Amino acid sequence: MSEEIQVIAIFHPTPGKENRLQQILLDLASKVRENEQGVKKYQAFEQIDSQSGSNVVLFQETFTTHLSSPYFTSTGEILAKEELITKPFEVIVLNPIGGFTR
């Protein structure tokens, strides 16, 4: 299998601020695309079957210096200042063990 790791981050938006959170995370995705050539995939999803309301899920393939980048730090500051999430986001790091991609 690949040596790349997969990262999933789950954000729990403050009710009424879902669109703003999505906007901020899509801006972050653009900056990752421009600056992190090793990242092959970076997608945002909205979880629609959550019992706690809608959640925003980011999927990132490969994980390097992302957390220390100035744009990631700035995003964290915006999330806190604008109170866009109800609790700290969850990060799940996965190592593929099998399956396929088409």
Q: Got a strand count?
A: 4
CATH domain class name: Alpha Beta
Helix content: 25-40%
Strand content: 15-25%
Question: What do these coordinates show?
Answer:
With 102 residues, this protein is of the alpha+beta class. It has a single domain (6-94), classed as Alpha-Beta Plaits (2-Layer Sandwich). The protein is 29% helix and 25% strand. The chain contains 2 helices and 4 strands. Strands 2-3-1-4 form a 4-stranded antiparallel sheet, covered by helices on one side. β2 (41-47) and β3 (55-61) form a beta hairpin. α1 runs antiparallel to α2. The radius of gyration is 14 Å and the shape is globular. The two termini are 15 Å apart. The model has no long low-confidence stretch (mean pLDDT 83).
Defining traits:
single chain; 102 residues; alpha+beta; Alpha-Beta Plaits; four-stranded antiparallel sheet; 2 helices; 25% strand; globular
Give the arrangement of secondary structure elements.
Layout: E1 6-11, H1 18-35, E2 41-47, E3 55-61, H2 70-81, E4 90-94
Antiparallel strand pairs: 1-3, 1-4, 2-3
Helix pairs in contact: 1-2
